[in-house]
Write a structure and sequence with these properties.
Helix content: over 70%
Radius of gyration: 47 Å
Strand content: under 5%
Shape: rod-shaped
Order of helices and strands: HHHHHHHHHHHHHHHHHHHH
């Protein structure tokens, strides 16, 4: 075979080798891109939503737990069993009403502040929540109005169930009064808590009779706090007037007490006064009121009620049949679209809260481990801490060193390209040799710039760890290595023809086996990667199981 044929044969075989290598490289790159794409898709579709749900769930649980802890702190020593019951009650109520579990949890604080025990608060939560919805109050305002009125009326009970029954009764009366008279639930609640309830309790009059009188006042435009004060003045001054002018009352055929000396219903007393003043002239009315012992201001409130005794009786009858009024109004309110959306949101948040409850112990364990680690670090003396920092810094330098080694491997690859260019350029003119060399050197020069950056960063790290002497030592070692490399390179170029002959003879004889060996190495590497990945997954699963155990 002549030299020309040999060169052509070697060129073809070298081209085949290069093409096969490029093809293998392209397939590996495509596979890597597909794996990366799959990983990104899974991250977007599964990992990120899962992390977001975990974060939201943990916060939902934390907010509820914080509200419960703060509320129960005012109740003193509450057992774990009682806490669970109170938490479950708040969650259950929130899943069927507009009020969130967090707000219901905070409401225990308001109930406790109103003097209720843990059992009373637990029993009363649903009642107060319905009252808040029916009256469009906040839970704070609903608790204040309902509990203050209950205490003022003397209807509070140490028995939790009896206390709940009285709360329901009072709530129903107030909501019913709102429905039958010209006033709001808040108007009648504030009227009771402002003197009216105390006056009713003093005379052993129940809430239905008092609310009926407040309803008549509301129809005449006297509402809220003013109505409570007005009713208190009427009940007080009727007694005082009768006491001062008892004989005149009796001479006129009027008595405010029955045979058992119990004060008659207010509607009956107002009717007696209506009958007495009926037919009197304007001049006779003030004289008669003075004879009965009334003061002009108090008699003005009595006159507001006079003429409405029958309406007062109708209101009272309606209020005595008010059982279930609050629940009925609440159910109607909860049928609205907005209410249903709030209920849906509460249910979704409850699911999130349950998920957060699962993660909470794990997070607490991690938190405990971190605090223990910090405490252990702080317990070390300065010398030990310095040693650990130095060793960690050295370990951190492994990464840049590996990067530098990787760039060195790329340099070898580019040198292969350089020699290949020289070979093919050798088959043409001498000018082609120069052009091929420059073309081969271009990527090598770019790589040299990258290596310089890495070496600079690595040198800075060495100076940080070993100081100036370390830099000198590292520099001497590097310069010696460069000198050796240059010497070897000069020797290689000095015998370029012989070396190229040896190189291409070896490539001609061994490129197929090299390619096969590289393929087998790739398979082995992939199998090792797969095995290591499975081991890693099993290890993480075991760690996760240990955390959740």
């Amino acid at each position: 075979m002549d030299v020309g044929s040999l060169v052509v044969t070697l060129s073809v075989q070298a081209n085949q080798f290069i093409n096969e290598m490029k093809n293998a490289e392209r397939q590996m790159e495509e596979s890597a891109n597909k794996i990366v794409s799959l990983g990104k898709s899974i991250t977007k579709a599964v990992t990120l939503p899962f992390v977001a749900i975990g974060a939201y769930s943990t916060k939902a649980f934390g907010d509820f737990d914080q509200a419960m802890t703060e509320s129960l702190s005012i109740l003193g020593d509450v057992s774990d069993e009682m806490r669970v019951r109170m938490e479950d009650t708040a969650r259950t109520i929130s899943m069927s009403t507009m009020t969130s579990a967090d707000e219901l949890a905070r409401s225990y604080y308001y109930l406790a502040s109103a003097g209720m025990s843990a059992e009373q608060s637990l029993a009363s939560l649903d009642v107060v929540n319905n009252f808040a919805i029916a009256g469009t109050f906040s839970m704070t305002q609903a608790t204040d109005l309902l509990s203050d009125a209950l205490n003022a009326l003397g209807m509070a009970s140490q028995d939790a169930e009896k206390h709940k029954e009285n709360l329901i009764r009072l709530s129903d009366v107030l909501v019913k009064t709102n429905n039958v008279a010209n006033g709001s639930v808040q108007d009648f609640s504030e009227a009771l808590t402002n003197m009216a309830a105390a006056a009713l309790r003093t005379l052993n009059k129940d809430v239905e009779e008092g609310a009926a009188a407040l309803a008549v006042f509301a129809d005449q435009g006297t509402k809220g706090v003013k109505a409570g004060m007005a009713l208190n003045i009427v009940l007080r001054d009727v007694q005082e007037a009768f006491k001062r002018q008892k004989q005149n009352w009796l001479d006129m055929g009027i008595s405010i007490y029955d045979a058992q000396e119990k004060m008659k219903p207010l509607a009956d007393i107002i009717e007696l006064l209506e009958n007495k003043f009926q037919g009197l002239t304007d001049a006779q009315k003030p004289v008669t009121s003075a004879m009965l012992g009334f003061q002009s201001k108090s008699f003005g409130y009595i006159q507001t009620l006079m003429g409405h005794s029958q309406k007062m009786r109708e209101y009272e009858a309606a209020l005595r049949g008010a059982s279930g009024e609050t629940k009925q109004l609440t159910d109607r309110v909860l049928k609205s679209f907005n209410a249903q959306m709030l209920i849906l949101g509460n249910n979704i948040k409850d699911v999130a809260r349950r998920i957060g409850e699962f993660f909470a112990p794990i997070i607490l364990k991690v938190n405990h481990m971190i605090r223990e680690s910090v405490a252990a670090w702080n317990s070390l003396n300065t010398e030990v801490q310095s040693t650990i920092i130095a060793v960690s810094t050295i370990a951190a330098s492994v990464g840049p060193a590996i990067m530098a080694f990787g760039f060195l491997m790329k340099t070898i690859v580019f040198l292969k390209g350089f020699f290949t260019s020289l070979l093919f350029a050798g088959t043409s003119a001498t000018a082609g040799i120069g052009t091929g060399a420059l073309a081969a050197m271009a990527p090598l020069m770019a790589l040299a710039a990258k290596v310089a950056l890495v070496v600079g960063a690595f040198a800075g790290l060495v100076y940080l760890v070993w100081g100036k002497e370390g830099i000198v030592t590292a520099w001497n070692a590097a310069t010696n290595a460069v000198k050796n490399f240059v010497s070897l390179s000069l020797g290689f170029f000095a015998h370029l023809r012989e070396n190229l002959g040896i190189l291409f003879t070896w490539l001609r004889d061994n490129w197929q086996s090299v390619l096969g060996d590289m393929g087998r190495l790739f398979v082995v590497a992939f199998q090792n990667y797969q095995d290591n990945l499975m081991v890693s997954l099993r290890t993480w699963m075991q760690l996760f199981g240990a955390f959740t155990a």
